[in-house]
Design brief:
The complex is a heterodimer. Chain A has 17 helices and no strands. Chain A is mostly helical. Chain A folds into two domains: 56 residues, no CATH class; 238 residues, MetI-like (MetI-like fold). In chain A, helix 5 runs parallel beside helix 9, helix 5 packs across helix 10 and helix 5 runs antiparallel to helix 13. Chain B is built from 18 helices and 14 strands. In chain B, the strands form four sheets. Chain B has a five-stranded mixed beta sheet with strand order 2-1-3-13-6. A five-stranded mixed beta sheet of chain B has the order 8-9-10-7-11. Chain B has a two-stranded antiparallel sheet with strand order 4-5. Chain B is globular and about 65 Å long. The chains are: A mainly alpha, B alpha/beta. Chains A and B meet through helix 3, helix 15 and helix 16 of A and helix 1, helix 3, helix 11 and helix 17 of B.
Chain lengths: 339, 452
C-alpha cells in the first residue's frame, strides 16, 4: 500500500479532534463490552447455578470428547500399538492413508451407502409422517409403533439382516418369490450387500418420523386453505406449502442422517466382521470406513494409524456438512427470517 | 410456587454436580490394580460342559486360598488389548493359538520359559503341531488347550442314492471329486437345495494348500507364500468346486440356513453330500441325531496320504498379570493329563446318562488322548460313529498347523480376504493372492522389525 493511498482513505478527525469509530475499533469495543457483561454475569447467583448444572456435561465433553480427540491427534503422528510406548513417525500415518487400498474402498462404500440411505430414509420417514397426520385418534398408537424399532439394539438389527436377507430361506426373497421374482444373494453378492443394509436401516426410521410429524403439525392450516381457494392441487400444495414449511426439519435430518451414515458401523460389523465366524466370511462390499478404522485399531493394534484414519473421517464429515450448510441457505425457510 | 431459597439452590447444584460426576467415573471403568488381591481372573474361557467345569474344579483346588473368577465368553481382542494397555489384564487368557504369535511379538504376553522350568512342565506331553503354533523365535508363549481335527463327514444315504459309497469321496483325486460334487448336488429351480461337496473355504483353505503340497508361510513364520503356484492352484480348484454348484451366493445361503446344532441338522435334512469338518461335530451329531446315516473318511493329499489341519485354543499369561506364579499353576493344571482324563470321564458319564453317544475327546495333550481313547471312550455300537471316532484318534498323528508368526491376525485375515474376494467374483485367484501376499508380507515385516 502506498503512502498516498493510506492518506486518501484515512478518516478525518471530527471537530473535537478525536477520530470517529471505524469498524475495527467498533468490534473491539463490542468485544470489550461483551467480556464485561460476561464477567458481571458471574455475580448473579442464577449464572453460577446454571454453570453448576452444566458442569457434568462440560466435564464429560472435555474428558470424554475433546480430550480423546486431542489425544488421537497426537497419536496419529506415532506408531502406538496400545502396549508399547508410542514413537513419533511424523506424517507417515497420513502418507499411508493414500497407499492403503482399503481406505479408498471403505470410503467409497461408505459414501455409496450414505447416498442411498439418506434420501431413502428421509422419503420413507416423510411418507410415514404424512400418513400419521391422517390417522386421527390413532396417531399416538402408530407413533409408538414406528418408534419402537429405534429401541432395538443395532447388533440385533445386524443379525436380523442375515436372517431376513438370506438368499435361500430369508423372508425378503420368500416374499419376492410369491410375485415371481428370484431374489438376489443379499448377504454374499457384493452388488446387493449395501442395498440390503440400507433397507435394513429403514427399520429404525422412527426417530426421523417423529421429527417430521412435529414439523408437519406446525404448518399453518391457513396456508393450505389459501392454496385450496387458489385452486392448488394436493401435489402442488405439498411442493409449495408443505416442503418449504418443514424445510428446517428436513435440513436438520439431512445433516444428522448424513453424519450417522458416514459413521455407520454396528450393523455391518455384526453381520460381516463381528465374530470369528463372520470375519471368516467377511465381504469387501461391507467394509465401511469405521469398520476399517476399528479393525486397524483393535484387531491389528495400529492405534496410531487408526487415529489418522479417524481424523480423515472427521475432515470428510466436516467438509460435507459445510457444503450442506452452504446450500441450505437457498432451500431452507425459517419462519420470521428476513431475506 | 415460592422461589427456592439460595441455600436450597446451592444444595441442588452440589447434588447435581456429584450425581453427574459419579456415573462419569463409573463409565470410565475405573479400577485399581492390587497386587495383594486374592482374586484370580481368567478371560476367553466358558464353562459350557463337563470338560470345562471338571478342569476348573481341579484348577480351583490347585489355587488353594484364591478366589477364581471366570469371565465367561469368547476371547475378545478389543477387551483384551484395552485391559493390557490399561495395566489391568486378567491373570490368564484363553485364545485362538493363531493369535498368540502376534500378541507375543508386541510384548502383550509373557514367555512361559520360567513357568515351564520352575514347575517342571513336560512339553512333550503336548501335541507337537500345537506347540508349533504357540512358539515364537524359539520361546513358548502358550500351552495348548483344545485341539480340533478335520475329517470328512458324509451323508451315507445321499451317496447311496447317487450310486456311490464313502470310498468314492476321495480328495486326492481332484477331477473325480469335481465330478462327484456335480452328481451329489441338488437344485430346485434357481435354488441350491443340496451341496454336493463343500470345500469349506476360506476357513479350511490351509488344508487344501497342504493337500496340494504347498504352505501359506515359511516354517520360521517370517515369509508369506500366499502367491506361490500351489496356493493359487488350491484356491482356483476350491472356488471352482463352488462355482460347479451355482456359485458362492447360493452355496453360502444354503449353508447359513443349516440347523447345525439342532435335530434337523444338514445331515438329517440331506442338505449336504460330503464335507471336511472339525471333530467336535461328531459329538454334536451323537448328541442331537444319533440316528443319522453318517459316513466318514480321511482328507487325503494329492499323493493319497491322510492330512489333518489342526487348530484350537491355548492358555497364555498377559503382560501385567498380577499372579504370574499362580497363572503358571493354573495353566499346568488345566492342560495336565490328569485333568483332561478326569474331565473326559465326567463328560462321557453325562452324555451317556442322556442316552446319547460319547464319541471321544481330542485335546492338545497327547498323553491324555491316549488314555481317553483306551480307557474312557467305548464303542457305542453304532458303527458309523465308532468309525468316525477311530479315524479321529488315528488322524491326530497327521496333524499340521499354520506356523506361528508375528503378524497373527493380519496374516490370517490376508489369506481369508483373498478367498472371499475370489468367492465374491471380485478378483481372480492369482490377483487376490498377489494382493494378499503384499498385505501379509508387509504386516510380517513390520511385526518383525527389530527382532532377530
Amino acid at each position: 500500500m502506498t503512502v498516498s493511498s493510506r492518506t486518501a482513505t484515512a478518516p478525518a478527525p471530527d471537530a473535537s479532534g478525536s477520530l470517529p469509530p471505524t469498524a475495527a475499533t467498533g468490534d473491539r469495543g463490542d468485544r470489550r463490552e461483551r467480556a464485561r457483561r460476561w464477567r458481571a454475569s458471574w455475580r448473579r447467583r442464577e449464572t453460577r447455578a446454571a454453570y453448576a448444572f452444566l458442569s457434568p456435561w462440560i466435564f464429560g465433553f472435555v474428558v470424554l470428547t475433546a480430550g480423546p480427540m486431542l489425544a488421537t491427534l497426537w497419536l496419529s503422528f506415532t506408531n502406538y500399538d496400545g502396549i508399547t510406548q508410542p514413537k513419533g513417525v511424523g506424517f507417515e500415518n497420513y502418507r499411508q492413508l493414500f497407499e492403503d487400498p482399503s481406505v479408498a474402498k471403505s470410503l467409497m462404500n461408505t459414501l455409496l451407502f450414505t447416498v442411498m440411505r439418506v434420501p431413502l430414509s428421509m422419503a420413507v420417514a416423510l411418507a410415514l409422517a404424512m400418513l400419521l397426520m391422517r390417522v386421527g385418534r390413532a396417531t399416538g398408537f402408530f407413533r409408538t409403533l414406528f418408534y419402537l424399532p429405534v429401541m432395538t439394539p443395532s447388533v440385533a438389527v445386524g443379525i436380523l439382516f442375515l436372517l431376513l436377507f438370506n438368499g435361500n430361506v430369508g423372508l425378503i426373497n420368500t416374499v419376492l418369490g410369491f410375485v415371481g421374482v428370484d431374489g438376489p444373494s443379499w448377504t454374499t453378492d457384493g452388488d446387493w450387500i449395501k442395498p440390503g443394509l440400507v433397507l435394513t436401516t429403514l427399520w429404525s426410521v422412527g426417530s426421523t418420523v417423529i421429527i417430521y410429524l412435529a414439523a408437519l403439525k406446525n404448518v399453518p392450516e391457513e396456508l393450505y386453505e389459501a392454496a385450496e381457494i387458489d385452486g392448488v392441487g394436493r401435489r402442488q400444495a405439498f411442493v409449495h406449502v408443505t416442503l418449504p414449511q418443514i424445510s428446517g426439519a428436513l435440513f436438520f435430518t439431512l445433516i444428522v442422517n448424513t453424519i450417522a451414515s458416514l459413521q455407520t458401523f454396528t450393523e455391518a460389523y455384526t453381520a460381516f466382521f463381528g465374530s470369528s465366524n463372520s470375519q471368516t466370511y467377511s465381504n469387501d462390499a461391507a467394509l465401511f470406513y469405521v469398520v476399517h478404522l476399528f479393525q486397524q485399531a483393535f484387531q491389528y493394534m495400529h492405534l496410531g494409524y487408526a487415529s489418522a484414519l479417524a481424523w480423515l473421517l472427521f475432515l470428510v464429515i466436516l467438509v460435507i456438512t459445510l457444503i450442506q450448510a452452504k446450500f441450505s441457505k437457498r432451500f431452507v425457510y425459517y419462519e420470521g427470517e428476513q431475506r | 410456587m415460592a422461589a427456592p431459597s439460595g441455600r436450597t439452590r446451592r444444595t441442588a447444584c452440589s447434588v447435581a454436580a456429584v450425581l453427574g460426576l459419579l456415573p462419569l467415573a463409573a463409565c470410565g471403568g475405573v479400577s485399581v490394580a492390587d497386587d495383594t488381591s486374592t482374586t484370580f481372573t481368567t478371560m476367553g474361557f466358558g464353562l459350557g460342559d463337563a470338560i470345562a467345569t471338571s478342569r476348573i474344579d481341579d484348577a480351583r483346588k490347585a489355587l488353594d486360598g484364591m478366589e477364581l473368577q471366570i469371565n465367561e465368553g469368547a476371547f475378545d481382542e478389543q477387551q483384551f488389548l484395552s485391559a493390557v494397555a490399561a495395566g489391568d489384564p486378567p491373570d490368564v487368557v484363553n485364545m485362538d493359538r493363531t493369535l498368540i504369535g502376534g500378541y507375543a511379538a508386541r510384548g502383550a504376553l509373557l514367555p512361559l520359559t520360567d513357568c515351564v522350568r520352575e514347575q517342571s512342565i513336560d512339553l512333550k506331553q503336548y501335541r507337537a503341531s500345537a506347540i508349533d503354533e504357540v512358539k515364537l523365535n524359539g520361546s513358548v508363549y502358550g500351552m495348548p488347550d483344545s485341539f480340533d481335527n478335520r475329517i470328512l463327514l458324509m451323508d451315507a444315504s445321499v451317496l447311496k442314492k447317487a450310486g456311490h459309497s464313502a470310498s468314492d469321496v476321495d480328495t486326492s483325486d481332484w477331477e473325480g471329486l469335481r465330478e462327484l460334487t456335480g452328481a451329489l448336488k441338488k437344485q430346485d429351480g434357481g435354488k441350491l437345495t443340496r451341496i454336493g461337496f463343500d470345500p469349506k473355504i476360506p476357513e479350511f483353505f490351509p488344508l487344501w494348500v497342504r493337500a496340494n503340497g504347498g504352505s501359506l508361510i515359511s516354517d520360521d513364520g517370517r515369509t508369506a507364500r500366499l502367491d506361490s503356484p500351489r496356493v493359487v492352484e488350491a484356491l482356483a480348484y476350491t472356488t471352482g468346486l463352488i462355482d460347479e454348484q451355482g456359485g458362492w451366493g447360493k452355496l453360502k445361503a444354503l449353508r447359513d440356513s443349516f440347523d447345525q446344532f439342532g435335530k434337523g441338522n444338514q445331515l438329517v435334512q440331506h442338505q449336504v453330500g460330503a464335507y471336511p469338518m472339525e471333530d467336535w461335530y461328531v459329538n454334536v451329531l451323537g448328541d442331537t441325531s444319533p440316528q443319522v446315516d453318517l459316513g466318514s473318511g480321511y482328507f487325503k493329499d494329492r499323493e493319497g496320504r491322510p492330512v489333518n489341519y489342526v487348530s484350537g485354543t491355548g492358555w497364555a499369561i498377559p503382560k501385567g498379570s498380577r499372579h504370574v506364579e499362580e497363572a503358571c499353576t493354573f495353566i499346568r493344571t488345566m492342560t495336565s493329563t490328569r485333568a483332561w482324563v478326569k474331565a473326559a470321564a465326567a463328560k462321557a458319564k453325562d452324555v451317556r446318562s442322556r442316552d446319547a453317544y460319547y464319541t471321544g475327546d481330542f485335546t492338545g495333550n497327547r498323553k491324555a488322548d491316549e488314555i481317553i481313547e483306551s480307557k474312557v471312550w467305548k464303542p457305542t455300537g453304532k458303527k458309523a460313529f465308532d468309525e468316525a471316532t477311530r479315524r479321529l484318534y488315528d488322524i491326530q498323528k497327521a496333524g499340521f498347523a499354520v506356523p506361528a508368526n508375528a503378524a497373527g491376525t493380519e496374516f490370517k485375515q490376508a489369506w481369508q480376504d483373498a478367498c472371499n474376494r475370489v468367492l465374491s467374483g471380485e478378483q481372480s485367484p492369482k490377483q487376490a493372492l498377489e494382493q494378499a501376499q503384499q498385505e501379509a508380507q508387509s504386516a510380517l515385516d513390520i511385526a518383525n522389525q527389530g527382532r532377530e
